[in-house]
Amino acid sequence: GAGVSQTPSNKVTEKGKYVELRCDPISGHTALYWYRQSLGQGPEFLIYFQGTGAADDSGLPNDRFFAVRPEGSVSTLKIQRTERGDSAMYLCASSLTGTSGQETQYFGPGTRLLVL
Amino acid sequence: QKEVEQNSGPLSVPEGAIASLNCTYSDRVSQSFFWYRQYSGKSPELIMSIYSNGDKEDGRFTAQLNKASQYVSLLIRDSQPSDSATYLCAVNLSNFGNEKLTFGTGTRLTIIP
To answer: Do A6 and A23 form a contact (C-beta atoms < 8 A)?
Structure first.
């Protein structure tokens, strides 16, 4: 079946602009995660959704970052007033329930964001 | 101390040899451990998961977990050039109900033909 998809694959924007990154999880997966990966680093957790609600948003770096998942499927990560330091690969992952303790997270291809 | 630590490498291994990748983690309550492979410019791809002490084998890959020493490793036998990638160790540091992963910085592996 289809895996996790993310759009756009690349996004170039100017400092101060607003961007939206979309994630479409594997069908039937209730848990959805956003991570951010800078060059030479491992992915860093941003936010975790269980269904429609954000169960853990402790990784969001500041209030310029916000994410939604209104119908419990597609999620959008929103970044306001982008800064050059926001440039990174943004990865989305999904898992079946997010509560079993032993689930695989399947990653999408990522969105590479470049803020000029 | 970082929560999940890996040697960043690069680690160079001759083709056909065994590649050994190591990872330590800080939180004793950790339940789940994963190895992901990441090719340059691509997203992480799951190689192995392990939840209990001991060894788990899947083809050319063996994951080893020692919870007492807070140590997890990945062995790749008969290394192939296509194994050249960055290997990410990931740990679920939380209890049940939130399975966010904490990643190490990754070890870059190069298989020399």
So the answer is: yes
> In B, residues 23-42, which contact A (CB 8 Å cutoff)?
31-32, 34, 36, 42
Tell me which amino acid residue A115 is.
V
Q: What are phi and psi of B92, to 5 degrees?
A: -90, 105
| pLDDT tens, residue by residue, A38-49 | 999 999 999 999
Q: Could you tell me the pLDDT band of residue A52, with boundaries at 50, 70 and 90?
A: very high
Query: Mapping DSSP to helix (H, G, I), strand (E, B) and coil, where does residue A73 land?
Result: coil
- Partners of A45 on chain B (C-beta within 8 Å) are 100-102
Burial degree of A14 (CB within 10 A; 0-12, 13-18, 19+): exposed
Determine phi and psi for A86, rounding to 5 degrees: -80, -10
Average pLDDT, consecutive stretches of 10 residues, N- to C-terminus, chain B (113 residues) = 84 96 88 93 94 94 94 97 97 73 95 95
Q: What are phi and psi of B81, to 5 degrees?
A: -55, -30
Return contacts of A52-58, CB within 8 angstroms, 24+ apart: A55/A98, A55/B97, A55/B98, A56/B98, A56/B100
* Residue A1: pLDDT band with limits 50, 70, 90: low
Interface residue of A60, A105, A112, A114 to substitute, partner B, most B CBs within 10 Å: A105
Cβ-contact A30, A53 below 8 angstroms: no
